């Protein structure tokens, strides 16, 4: 049995076609894109092409709207820090309680070190944003609102277009961390109100260590890394040519596979999810089944702890992940599940399966075969499990 | 992912003594589902001999929590209750071939469950020593009293030591600042009582103490890739040493010191430091520098030994 990789929201395999496109830029076309000679000029041409490939995926009109970064986290940091500098007299941020640490840890530091006021908008039990609270938090002091396009743990999609319009009504900028959405959700930024958008290559089969910040034309951007004139002086540092070129090819592949993500991959995810719920009692899907990424399923198994599940899955050749405390070094379960008020009896046993276009029906069947036994083994050890005939449940799933 | 020892994996994948003892005469329950781990330990004790005849467990928790629980049951069976109480959480961790630092609390849970089960067997009430809110480190249940006892009894003066002795801050480390403040306060009190040297006291945000003590002996410099030509004769060696010292002397003289060659004996080079080098706290650094240069020039390990004036 070949290993089954279902942790694509953590990272994806680099597509071999991406690797092939990158390789010449290490040894043959190794020039500095800023140089005048042929070594550099050829690389500059390749980077311009890669930028157009990424633009096509995002649906942007102008090439200078893309600023390459080292990762999604850097793009997130740049967006928020820039907004606080350029939005004179505005010293507040509106964000959500379920953002990635790239936003939340930065906000916590801004509160402490810079006295910035941050509004963390809550979510309901399905992870949907509290729109009333969002509207109320926006005001003349808001520099920027930053709400993720898709949640990394549950896959929940947020209505970023409406959120951007509301931010603009308050005179604030709008940024979205779209690291999980790019390549899975159709985008047409040239008709969008979104001011800034972060993305990360390794989430859609490009290598790690390359990301980008989209900055809508006319939106002012203060650099976070100062130095040379690369990226029009907005992000200094020699261009990471092989990775930028790899990101371009990955973007083109993502564009051609976008339909597949939303049809074939979605069907695999649905088959996995319904199959597990049929076979295993006291399990529930967390998140919003109506508005979700097509590749993600987060299922909470009651009365057991996630790390044990992952270790046994790993032994069966299956890679997944968990928002469980014990796998992250913290003693608290995922901040996302806590924000959704998923009961503790289930939050510790939440497992995230995230698929990609590389998964097959056999992968799904293998999980369906081994997972019931794993849950049974661990429940057999749990002091909270009453046995197979348990009728007691700490909560009722909102849907089956 | 964590690096679990083979023993931890063995005890997680094939745990021993899982389940319930229906007529257990000692039951200890610690942890809670909300905390992410919980352990119910059941023991059967022979009242005549006070010996634990069987032990079983049920655990909600991660792989190392299950392994620690199973290990505990293996360790205590056959022991008298008093013998069992001598077991520490470190014994559980050692039995498993060690636990990742972040997982040490799993062994603490086993230790506490054992105390609770024994208390239950003896008809005593067992309760947490700590009141909610008084805890500095929630992960490991460390309150200020426990921290102060550990710091004073063991002269702890760094956060690293505090983590090693009490495990406070060793997991989520959200309490790091609170514990830093407490350690600073306790050390300051110890200084004012005259039981701690002010130079050793912990100060939050300060640089760690220097390592001057570690520099007192100058170890042999090992060259990984000897590039030197064939072995030198004694005369050649002495000449080479003199050349190096001649190069280095202007640097020492610039700082008001000086250095002269006294003798060369095999790989031992005796030098006399004079002027400002005498009694300079950094003299050992100087000696090491000379040693390094000599080793490079000679292509072999050298030990530089400073000799006192008049030698």
UniProtKB/TrEMBL annotation, chain A:
Q: What's an example of a GO molecular-function annotation for this chain?
A: cysteine desulfurase activity
Q: Which residues form the signal peptide?
A: none
- Give any single GO term for biological process: amino acid metabolic process
Q: Can you name the source organism?
A: Acetobacter lovaniensis
EC assignment = 2.8.1.7
Q: What is this protein called?
A: Cysteine desulfurase
Report the protein's function.
Catalyzes the removal of elemental sulfur atoms from cysteine to produce alanine. Seems to participate in the biosynthesis of the nitrogenase metalloclusters by providing the inorganic sulfur required for the Fe-S core formation.
* Assembly and interaction partners: Homodimer.
Q: Which stretches make up the Aminotransferase class V domain?
A: 4-366
UniProt lineage: Bacteria, Pseudomonadati, Pseudomonadota, Alphaproteobacteria, Acetobacterales
Q: Which UniProt keywords apply?
A: Iron, Iron-sulfur, Metal-binding, Nitrogen fixation, Pyridoxal phosphate, Transferase
Reaction it catalyzes: (sulfur carrier)-H + L-cysteine = (sulfur carrier)-SH + L-alanine
Q: Which InterPro entries match?
A: Aminotrans_V_dom, Aminotrans_V_PyrdxlP_BS, Cys_deSase_NifS_bac/arc, Cysteine_dSase, PyrdxlP-dep_Trfase, PyrdxlP-dep_Trfase_major, PyrdxlP-dep_Trfase_small
The record ties this protein, via Pfam families, to:
Aminotran_5 (PF00266)
Name of the top EC class for this enzyme? transferase
Cofactor(s) in the UniProt record: pyridoxal 5'-phosphate
Spell out the family assignment given in the record's similarity comment. Answer: Belongs to the class-V pyridoxal-phosphate-dependent aminotransferase family. NifS/IscS subfamily.
Automatic annotation (TrEMBL), chain B:
Q: Which GO terms describe its biological process?
A: iron-sulfur cluster assembly
The protein's name? Nitrogen fixation protein NifU
Keywords on record: 2Fe-2S, Iron, Iron-sulfur, Metal-binding, Nitrogen fixation
Which residues are involved in binding Fe cation?
Answer: 35, 62, 106
Where are the coiled-coil regions? none
Q: What does the similarity note say?
A: Belongs to the NifU family.
BFD-like [2Fe-2S]-binding domain: residues covered? 136-184
What is this protein's function per UniProt? May be involved in the formation or repair of [Fe-S] clusters present in iron-sulfur proteins.
Write down the species: Acetobacter lovaniensis
């Amino acid at each position: 049995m070949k290993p089954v990789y279902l942790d694509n929201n953590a990272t994806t395999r680099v597509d071999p076609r991406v690797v092939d496109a990158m390789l010449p830029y290490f040894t043959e076309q190794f020039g500095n894109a800023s140089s005048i000679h042929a070594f550099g000029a050829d690389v500059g041409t390749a980077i311009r092409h890669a930028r157009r490939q990424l633009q096509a995926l995002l649906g942007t009109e102008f090439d200078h709207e893309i600023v390459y970064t080292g990762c999604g986290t850097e793009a997130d940091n740049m967006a928020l820090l820039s907004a606080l500098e350029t939005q004179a007299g505005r010293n507040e941020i509106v964000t959500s309680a379920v953002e990635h640490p790239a936003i939340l840890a930065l906000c916590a530091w801004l509160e402490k070190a810079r006295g910035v006021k941050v509004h963390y908008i809550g979510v309901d039990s399905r992870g949907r944003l509290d729109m009333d609270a969002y509207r109320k938090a926006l005001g003349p002091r808001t520099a920027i609102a930053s709400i993720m396009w898709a949640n990394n743990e549950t896959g929940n999609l947020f209505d970023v277009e409406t959120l951007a319009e509301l931010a603009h009504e308050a005179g604030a900028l709008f940024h979205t961390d779209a690291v999980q959405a790019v390549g899975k959700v159709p985008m047409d930024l040239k008709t969008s109100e979104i001011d800034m958008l972060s993305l990360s290559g390794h989430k859609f089969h490009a290598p790690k260590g390359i990301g980008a910040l989209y900055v809508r034309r006319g939106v002012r951007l203060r650099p976070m890394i100062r130095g040379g004139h690369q990226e029009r002086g907005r992000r200094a540092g020699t261009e990471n040519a092989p990775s930028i070129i790899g990101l371009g090819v990955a973007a083109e592949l993502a564009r051609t596979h976008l339909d597949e993500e939303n049809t074939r991959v979605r069907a695999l995810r649905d088959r996995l999810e319904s199959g597990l719920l049929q076979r295993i009692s006291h399990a529930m899907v967390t998140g919003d089944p109506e508005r979700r990424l097509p590749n993600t399923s987060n299922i909470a198994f009651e009365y057991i702890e996630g790390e044990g599940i992952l270790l046994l899955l790993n032994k069966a050749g299956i890679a997944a992940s968990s928002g469980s405390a014990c796998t992250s070094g913290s003693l608290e379960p995922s901040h996302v599940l806590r924000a959704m008020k998923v009961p503790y009896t289930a939050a510790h046993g939440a497992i995230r399966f995230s698929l990609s276009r590389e998964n097959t029906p056999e992968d799904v069947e293998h999980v369906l075969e081994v997972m019931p036994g794993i849950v049974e083994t661990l429940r057999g050890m749990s002091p909270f499990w009453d046995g197979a005939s348990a009728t007691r449940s700490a909560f009722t799933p909102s849907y089956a | 992912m964590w690096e679990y020892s083979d023993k931890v994996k063995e005890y997680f994948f094939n745990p021993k003594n899982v389940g319930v003892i229906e007529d257990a005469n000692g039951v200890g329950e610690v942890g809670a589902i909300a905390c992410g781990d919980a352990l119910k330990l059941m023991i059967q004790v022979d009242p005549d001999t006070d010996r634990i005849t069987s032990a079983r467990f049920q655990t909600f928790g991660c792989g190392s929590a299950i392994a620690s629980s199973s290990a505990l049951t293996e360790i205590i069976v056959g022991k008298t209750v008093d013998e069992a109480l001598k077991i520490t959480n470190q014994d559980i961790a050692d039995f498993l071939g060690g636990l990742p630092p972040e997982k040490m609390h799993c062994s603490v849970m086993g230790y506490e469950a054992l105390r609770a089960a024994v208390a239950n067997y003896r008809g005593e009430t067992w309760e947490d020593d700590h009141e909610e809110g008084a805890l500095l480190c929630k992960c490991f249940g460390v309150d200020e009293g426990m921290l102060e006892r550990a710091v004073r009894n063991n002269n702890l003066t760094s956060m690293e030591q505090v983590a090693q002795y009490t495990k406070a801050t060793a997991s989520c480390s959200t309490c790091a600042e609170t514990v830093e403040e407490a350690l600073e306060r306790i050390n300051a009190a110890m200084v004012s009582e005259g039981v701690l040297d002010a130079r050793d006291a912990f100060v939050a945000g300060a640089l760690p103490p220097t390592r001057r003590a570690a520099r007192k002996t100058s170890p042999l410099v090992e060259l990984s890739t000897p590039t030197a030509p064939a072995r030198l004769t004694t005369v050649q060696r002495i000449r080479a040493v003199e050349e190096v010292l001649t190069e280095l002397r202007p640097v020492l003289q610039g700082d008001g010191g000086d250095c002269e060659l006294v003798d060369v004996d095999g790989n031992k080079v005796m030098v006399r430091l004079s002027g400002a080098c005498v009694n300079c706290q950094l003299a050992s650094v100087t000696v090491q520098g000379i040693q390094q240069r000599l080793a490079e020039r000679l292509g072999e390990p050298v030990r530089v030994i400073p000799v006192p004036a008049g030698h």
